[in-house]
Design goal:
By secondary structure, the protein is an alpha+beta fold. It is 28% helix and 24% strand. Strands 1-8-7-6-15-10-11-12-14 form a nine-stranded mixed β-sheet, covered by helices on one side. Strands 16-17-19 form a three-stranded antiparallel β-sheet. It starts with a helix and ends with a helix.
Length: 349
């Protein structure tokens, strides 16, 4: 009898291993995935859908960000009141996986600095629908800001060496962490294994040897991506690809007849946007309603602005409502005509 029990027990061990493998494959979320979306209509301005993640005991926002390919700060904004280092087992964490597209031509690379997110619009085959891919990034901290403007990818390099400029070497030396003139490829190279050189001298889009920092303002101005993300982008982007680096903390976009607003905190050094407050938001509204003018519930817009969750939120709108001037935001004096003129001045990015 004892030998029969032992034989039965031994036969169950492989079965247990099999169930373990099944759970690993089907029960756990993916380690990371790039978001690829197809735009059903040319005018669609919102992609994706939000995801609710139920936290495990060992989860942190850093690990959740890596799992769903989002940035650390995106998770912090979308989940006020949740401890990013210890959400707690069973905690509901909103994964910000829905996005309003930036107000820019849908071609090449568009980097929205305050959002800390990159969008890539690959060339569409004739008759095919436009696609867009999006990735979280790190950008320059306040004293090493990532520059705005138009540029292009001028070179691609695998396993790049890093030649830190003297200013960075001086900074490291002052901190007691001296740098050599050349950091060769390898685990100590902050550029990672792939780099896209831009037409702006000294600036790159590259990987990292410290992926926990993706989604934060931690670089010396370059754009840092998760290793898997830059590897994918590197394989898709050619030399000459257009790159637009924009400053759009407030974004609006349509899906059918629904208007969505996504609000991110302006960068600390962006005093103009901070000081103008809701006036800047009105300009975004005007630029998004030229062709299909509607009346908006300013109260709902102001509520989204005050929350600043960094996720798209639907606004209450009506077809052919009363005059916009009569419905100005209650907390600020805003001229819609002036906002329209300002939005036209800012167009063309």
């Amino acid at each position: 009898m004892h030998s029969q029990s032992a034989s039965l027990r031994d036969s169950l061990v492989p079965l247990g291993l099999l169930w373990g493998l099944i759970c690993l494959v089907f029960c756990l979320p993916p380690l990371a995935y790039a978001a690829v979306f197809e735009l059903a209509n040319e005018g669609d301005g919102v992609i994706g859908s939000p995801i609710e993640h139920i936290a495990a005991h060992e989860d942190t926002f850093v690990s959740i960000a890596r799992t769903y390919d989002v940035g650390y700060r995106e998770l912090v904004l979308a989940n006020p009141g949740v401890d990013p280092w210890l959400p707690g087992e069973g905690a509901q964490v909103l994964v910000p996986s829905q996005f309003v597209l930036p107000d820019a031509p849908r071609t090449g690379i568009v980097l929205n600095v305050p959002e800390m997110r990159l969008y890539y619009f690959p060339p569409a085959a004739e008759g095919a629908r436009q696609q867009v891919m999006t990735f979280p990034v790190s950008v320059g901290r306040q004293d090493w800001s990532t520059p705005y403007g138009r540029t292009r990818v001028t070179a691609k390099q695998r396993n790049p060496s890093w030649y830190p400029p003297q200013s960075i070497r001086d900074e490291h030396a002052a901190d007691g962490r001296p740098l050599p003139r050349v950091v060769p490829p390898g685990p100590d190279n902050p550029l990672g294994r792939h780099a896209l050189r831009l037409g702006i001298p000294g600036y790159l889009i590259h990987g990292t040897n410290r992926p926990a920092g993706v989604g934060m303002r931690v670089t010396h101005g370059c754009v840092r991506m998760f290793p898997a993300d830059i590897a994918e982008l590197y394989g898709l982007v050619g030399v000459g690809t257009a790159v637009r680096i924009v400053n759009q903390p407030f974004k609006m976009g349509w899906v059918a007849d629904e208007l969505y607003l996504e609000v991110h905190p302006p960068l600390e050094e962006d005093a103009e946007t901070i000081d103008r407050g809701l006036t800047a938001l009105v300009e975004v509204f005007v630029s998004n309603t030229d062709e299909r003018l509607k009346q908006v519930d300013w109260g709902s817009m102001e509520a989204v602005y005050n929350r600043g969750l960094g996720v798209p939120e639907a606004l209450a709108v009506e077809f052919e409502g009363p005059d916009l001037e009569a419905a100005a935001p209650p907390t600020e004096e805003v001229s819609v005509e002036a906002a329209h003129e300002a939005s036209e001045e800012r167009a063309g990015v």
